[in-house]
Every structure is written in C-alpha cells, then in structure tokens.
Write a structure and sequence with these properties.
450 residues; three-stranded antiparallel β-sheet; 18 strands; mainly alpha; 43% helix; globular; Glycosyltransferase
Amino acid sequence: MNKILISITLVLLLNFLFLSDSIGQSKTKGLLSDNDFKYLEGLTKDVVERSRIYPGQTISKDFGSNNSGGILIRPGGSDCYPAFWIRDYAMSLESGFITVKEQKHMLVLTASTQCDQTWITDGGSMIPMGAIPDHIRIYNSIPIYFPGSYDYKGQGNKKWGMMPPYCDQFYFIDMAYFYIKSSANIKLLTEKINGITLIDRLEMAYKTPPTKQDGVLVYVTEDFRGVDYGFRDVISITGELCMPSLLKYKASIELAELLTILKNRDKAETYHANARRLKLEIPQHFSDPRGMLLASTGKSNQADIWSTVMAIYYNVLEGEQALNASRVLAEGYKKGLLAKRGNIRHILIGEDFSEKSAWEKSLVRKGDYQNGGYWGTPTGWVCSAIAKTDTDAAKQLAKEYIDNLRAGDFRKGGNFGEPWECYNLDAPQNAIYMTTVSSPYTVFKSFQNQ
C-alpha cells in the first residue's frame, strides 16, 4: 500500500470516527446477552443473503430476472418487493454484510437513475431534477420514483404525493459515504456517471427536497406533498417535516466529510453549517412539552416515536430533552402503549389522532401497516433511547424482540416468517424483511462493541 493510499485511509477512518461521535449512541453496554447477540447476527446475515438477487436470477415471474450487471439487494427474502429499494438497502449497510463490490454496483446504478431533467408524470406529479428513485426495476434498471407502482409512465399521482419521497436523496448520500469509507476509492467521487460527477450528483440530491425560502428544514405544502419517509408512505404529512430533516442532518455531515477529502473546504463548511443549524432547529420546531418530537408542523403533527428515537440516536436531541423523551418512551413501554412482541408503533397508544386513525390521514385502516401496526425496524433505536434512563426496560424490550424472532424464525421452514415487516391487527405481513433485523442489529452491535 503506497503512502497516498495510507493517508487517504487514515483520513477516512478519522472522519468516520468524527461522524460516529456526531451521531453517537448511548454509553450503556450490552443490551443483549452474548448468546442473543450472536443469534441476531446470524439471522441478519442469513436475511441479507436471502435478500440478494444474483445476476440472471428471477425472483418473480412477473418482473423478470436481474439484468443490472451485478448483485442487487431487495427489501427482504420473500417476493413481496421484487425490485431494488434504495432506502432499505442503505439502512442495512452498517450491518457489515454487504461487500464493497456489491456496494459500488448499487451506488453507480442509483446514480445513473437519478433524475437529470424535471418532468411531469401522466398522473400529474412532478419528478424534480436531482430526485433519487424510490425503487429500481431489476430486469431493465428503470427508475420508479414513487411508491405504489412499478409502471414508469403511470407512476405518481396525488395518492402517493405530488413529488417523490424526501428520504431517498439523503440515503443516496449515505450509500456514497459508506462506500468511500469502506473502499477508500476516492476517485469514484470525481468520475462522471451519465456526464455528471458522483460528487455533483450527491449535491444535486441534497438540494432536491424543498425548504422554505432561506430555510434548512425539509418543508412541503399539501399541493407539493411528498412522502416524508418511506416507512410511512401511506400517511399524509405536511408542513416542516422532522424525519427527512433528521436524515438531512446526517447527510450534511457525510457530504461535508466527502468534500473535505476532495479538499473543497469552503463547500464542506457550508454543509457543516447546515448540520449545526439543523441540530439547533429540529428541537426548536418539533418538540412537544414532554421532549418528544412531532412528525411535522402541519398535517399529522403528532408525537412521533420514530423521529424521536432517531434524533436521540443521532445526538440531535441531547441533555435533559433526550432524558425527558427517554422517560416518556420507557413509561409508554412499561404501560404497554409502545411495543408488541418487541415491535414498535409509530405513535403511542392513546395519542392517536382519532378513534378511526392513528395518523390524521391514512390510506389504510387503523391498526394496519403504518397506521398503528408494529414494526421491528426501529426497535434498536427505541432500546437505545430508553436505555438513557431505564436500562432494565431497554434490556427487557430487546429480549422480547429477540424472543419473538426466535419463536418465528423463517429458517424453521413451513409458515414461519420472522423477521416480518410488521404486525397488523389480524396478522403479520411480508416475511423475511431485512431492516427488521439489519437496523436493530447495527444499533445492538454498537453497544456490544463498547
């Protein structure tokens, strides 16, 4: 290894350590026993493997084979999502089970499908320049920018928002940052993909989600509504948006570090300044009196468990406010208002918008999917947040999560399907779902390694 590569590797390592500190975790150790942690590690590895789509492999007769030229990773090991979803993949990177070669292929594919010309869909929605797809078809690498469809021409209408989801742009930056950290392949940042360098594409993506004039928080009105976060794409949320603003905070730090590596320190400082401003404004705009964060300042401006725990995990919520939110979550857990089988609701029971809906406006009935269903994806963040004030409760929740996975482990065969995507009123849905284990595993791993 030559001196330049050693220097680059050291810079990347130091920058990653800085980022980890900036979005650090609780100091509590060992929320899982060694045995339970090793079980989760093995299950996560097997689920990621089941989620791979190898070149030429067909996972659904209706969607053809993988002709992308490399391995793709879908949201899970069943055939319920037969495409490459950017969000679920990016959220699974820190599990450590995705190779550098696989990362590069999916990063370049995503960059090549970024929207380079603003256009209007047949359904009347707008796909702005810089937008990142919600998912990409495996057999022809065609980008689909909106949920609810695999149809390129038919995608996008008021049902799914007038603009694409606002989270994928920031997850694209996550993908690039993690790949550069893993590979030290700095050169890729300045290579052109469809005529535009990767670093320029990252900046385009960053600037795509709208804000108020001179604002930094992601902001939408009803007329320009887009999904705030893919794990609630059937929910209408407007105003200033908490979750994508949190993702923007993380992406700001990552983009600043990538620009620092490229010795563009002026631009890097701009993104560091955005991160500082976001860290200040998110608690100011979204906090309720208890310390919980609201999902938005407009429609569905309700206390949001997922945003709150992510903000604590990223250290956007700190000090007494983080402790206050931790106490609310711990109390909600002990009263049975937060979790079921170790899986997490979006909103505490008792704080639903009405008797008919957990959120103010939803495309599905109360108790189903993102409107009152229970999800394993955020369990690690929730345990991390609760551990700040009640380690015993955090460990108990973590144990319930693991015990539920063991009981229904898909590797037993038959009708066993854990990890499920979520639990509805009547039954779980979508077996062998990747982020249900990859996201919590990443959090629990950080505790085990302390």
